[in-house]
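Q: Hi! First time doing this. I have a protein sequence and I read that you can turn it into a structure. Is that right? Here it is:
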Amino acid sequence: MAEVIDARGRSCPEPVLLTKKAVATKQDSYEVLVDSRTAMQNVTRFATSVGYKVDVTQQDDDYRLVLRAEG
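A: Yes, that's right. Below is the predicted 3D structure, encoded as structure tokens:
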């Protein structure tokens, strides 16, 4: 089961920092919840730069990012 990082209500760069801290544990997948387009874009950019595939779904003002290790 993926670790859930709830970064809703936090402004950048905090969602990226929380995601960075989580991926340091080297799990295969994570779920990141954010509530701004900017945070979604920044977390996606960071995750892909460290080797994760990112699937994004939007529900109202929230974004759910599922990060999966590639390879």
